[in-house]
Design a protein that fits this description.
Layout: H1 8-26, H2 28-56, H3 66-90, H4 103-129, H5 146-150, H6 152-159, H7 161-178
Helix pairs in contact: 1-2, 1-4, 2-3, 2-4, 2-7, 4-7
Length: about 180
């Protein structure tokens, strides 16, 4: 009997499958709300992570070096996920696009937004996991990590993070051009 070896590539593929499946369950409008919340969460996690790194880490001698970096990574990831969950559940805004008339259009729309949402979320988490920060512009250090060197999908997601970051917003703008205007 052969042992199953879990890899980062498998984890990434499962994450994409779960997020895409979830987007079919919650629908296009809620998937768009998750994408918008993800953008706010990126900025919040990077901002609070930067404050933590600049002001609290230097004041705590026990968090110098590797321990401080690991704490910062976990903090950013926690804040990122927490802000998404809070904004999706309790956010005071609503996304309300008109429903598509065709079943095929609805399926493709949900699939597309689920895929883009998964790409944005997992690439952000991977950037944080490798110690990078999109807002601070420290993505170049990711290539030095074992995680980056062990997985082709990790490399693809981190190297193209700017694309994963921009595509959901571009898709939302494109959809808005095809939405009928209210009178």
């Amino acid at each position: 009997m052969q042992d199953i070896r879990l890899s980062w590539d498998l984890l990434i593929l499962v994450f994409f499958a779960v997020v895409i499946s979830y987007s079919f369950i919650i629908g296009r409008n809620q998937a768009l709300k998750v994408i918008i919340s993800s953008y706010m969460a990126v900025l919040t996690a990077d901002g609070l992570g930067s404050l933590f790194q600049n002001y609290l880490l230097p004041a705590a001698p026990s968090l110098e070096g590797e321990a401080g970096l690991q704490t910062l990574i976990l903090l950013k990831m926690f804040i990122f996920v927490l802000v998404i969950v809070l904004l999706v559940i309790k956010g005071g805004y609503r996304v309300d696009l008109l429903p598509e008339s065709s079943l095929v259009t609805r399926l493709l729309s949900n699939l597309s937004f689920g895929f883009l949402c998964a790409g944005l979320m997992i690439s952000t988490l991977l950037v944080y996991l490798t110690g990078g920060s999109f807002v601070a512009g420290t993505l170049t250090t990711a290539a030095e990590t074992n995680l980056y060197q062990e997985s082709v999908l990790v490399q693809l997601l981190i190297d193209n993070y700017s694309i994963w970051f921009a595509l959901p917003a571009i898709a939302i703008v494109m959809v808005s051009f095809f939405e009928p205007r209210e009178s």
